[in-house]
Specification:
Helices cover 48% and strands 12% of the residues. The chain is an alpha+beta fold and 365 residues long. The chain has three domains: 1-58; 60-160, Orthogonal Bundle (DNA polymerase, domain 1); 169-339, hpI Integrase, Chain A, CATH 1.10.443.
């Protein structure tokens, strides 16, 4: 178990390397940048003990070893983009701080310190994502009987809810009229999103074979993204969207005019596959003087319009493909943005103070 000395810029540091054969596999442990020989010798002893324990208890995995096993198992179940996300977090955040620790040495305080202090330059949403990955990897260890409890349990990252923008009915009409009159390349995409509530990736994957004009439904069974190509929907569940009279006329007209060589419903216009559809819509909305929404906000607009017209929450949930009704309920707060001034149409006028005097005098008389 050698100790290597290195001198650079008149500064001496030590590296300790430990190697052992465990279950026919060579296992290495290394510690770098040790500032004194005495400290290097102490670390040498620690590494020797660590390898001895690992040899005696072959099911005792280090974080780096176990996380690698987990990622390989996930390849069967998860999309390539999800696997890439795990690999990126492990390489950049997790392995540098926890890689050499055995799973049963990892504590809740270590994970808390990692998420809230050691990770730099990452948003709260990003930190929550990393924490979710840690919990999943440790949960898989519990399923295998390697851990008795998940040390990440109880740790959470609170992310302020982002403000969701929507268009009201007048703004919807303005957007569609301006898009149609200017022959905007995204007009058909905007109209389909507003009339169906489909996600951007689902619109990418939409084919004419998914549209049943006879039974007046659209089958949403797949989605597209730049990393994975065509795959399942976000919730991995299929759903059906009823075709309204307006949507039916729009789709039949679109099909009659289509010059696409394949069965795609919507043309892959420039900037769509590169993910710039949100930016383009936002700029166009500002140009025509309406709320500057992003492409995904068209889905929120569809949901709020459904709720405004009294469609039950459970039905809206099924149409848009939310995994839980709690997600759909969040859109009820947005409904208020589109109802301001609606009660003015009641035409009810309360009595003024001067009128009250006449009422009192009549009762007294």
């Amino acid at each position: 178990m050698p100790i290597y000395q290195e001198t650079k810029n008149n500064k001496t540091t030590y590296t300790v390397v430990a190697t052992a054969q465990i279950n026919g596999k060579q296992v290495n442990r290394k510690k770098r940048s040790i500032t004194s020989l005495a400290a290097a010798k102490r670390i040498e002893i620690d590494l020797r003990i660590e390898l001895k324990l690992l040899k005696e208890r072959p099911n005792r995995h280090s974080w780096s070893d176990w996380s690698e096993i987990c990622v390989q198992r996930m390849r069967v179940e998860f999309k390539n983009s999800t696997i890439m996300g795990y690999q990126g977090s492990l390489r950049k955040w997790l392995n540098p701080h926890m890689g050499n620790f055995f799973l049963d040495e990892i504590t809740g305080s270590m994970i808390h310190e990692l998420i809230f202090e050691k990770i730099q330059g990452l948003s709260l949403e990003g930190r929550r994502g990393v924490l979710k990955q840690v919990k999943r990897i440790l949960s898989m260890a519990m399923d295998e009987g390697i851990l008795a409890r998940n040390p990440a349990k109880g740790i959470s990252v609170k992310v302020p809810e982002a403000r969701q923008l929507i268009l009201n009915r007048t703004e919807i009409d303005t957007l569609l009229l301006a898009g149609k009159s200017t022959n905007h390349p995204f007009f058909n995409h905007w109209a389909t999103a507003i009339l169906t509530g489909m996600r951007n990736g689902e619109l990418h994957a939409l084919n004419w074979t998914d549209i049943d004009f006879e039974n007046r439904v659209i089958s949403v069974t797949k989605s597209w993204n730049s990393k994975d190509g065509i795959g399942p929907t976000k919730s991995t569940k299929n759903r059906y969207i009823p075709i309204s009279n307006e949507l039916e006329g729009f789709l039949k007209n679109l099909k009659a005019k289509s010059h696409l060589s394949d069965s795609r419903v919507l043309e892959k216009v420039p900037h769509w596959e590169s993910g710039e559809q949100a930016k383009i819509l936002k700029i166009f909305c500002r140009t025509i003087g309406i709320t500057p929404i992003k492409f995904h906000d068209l889905r929120a607009t569809f949901i709020t319009q459904m709720l405004l017209r009294g469609v039950p929450v459970a039905i809206v949930m099924n149409i848009v493909g939310h995994s839980t009704i709690k997600t759909t309920m969040r859109y009820l707060r947005l409904v208020a943005q589109d109802t301001q001034g609606a009660t003015e149409s009641l035409g009810i006028t309360l009595p003024r103070d001067c009128d009250m005097g006449n009422v009192v005098s009549l009762f007294q008389h």
